[in-house]
Amino acid sequence: METHSIRRFICITGVGAGDSEGHGGFFYDWLFQPMMLRKVYEDKDRQEDAIRASALDWIIVWPTILNDKPATGNIRALTDLAGVHGGTIARADVADFVVQQLTTDTWLHKTPLITW
User: Fold this and answer.
1) How many alpha carbons fall within 13 Å on the CB side of residue 105?
2) For labelling, which of 31, 51, 73, 105 has a CA lying 20 to 30 Å from the CA of 57?
């Protein structure tokens, strides 16, 4: 990316990666993620570390549990995860949020959790 002068990097990982660990809700945090996704989230953590260490203008997005419902446009983007334990969001709303990050610096060098 640096060779081709591409500065902006937007990465979608997921709730439970990095500092969002423990904010996916009881069943997700204590059953599903440790039993089914442990290795995947170890990779996500390494990925996030590499992105943060880069010289790029990065944004790491943590969506809550994805669904196929229509977009609502009512996205909550949070960096203070106190009291957040689960949630859901439409894939279409995640896509809209990511596209918006191409032209705004609001979340630059931050990791917002997005949910409804």
Assistant:
1) 3
2) 73
The whole-angstrom separation of Cα 116 and Cα 37 is: 23
In percent, the amount of the chain with pLDDT more than 90 equals 64
User: Which residues are registered as beta bridge partners of 76?
Assistant: 115
- The pairing of strands 76-78 and 113-115 is antiparallel
> Other C-beta atoms within 10 Å of 91: how many?
13
pLDDT band at 26 (very low <50, low <70, confident <90, very high): confident
CB neighbour list of residue 40: distance below 8 Å, 6 or more residues apart:
none
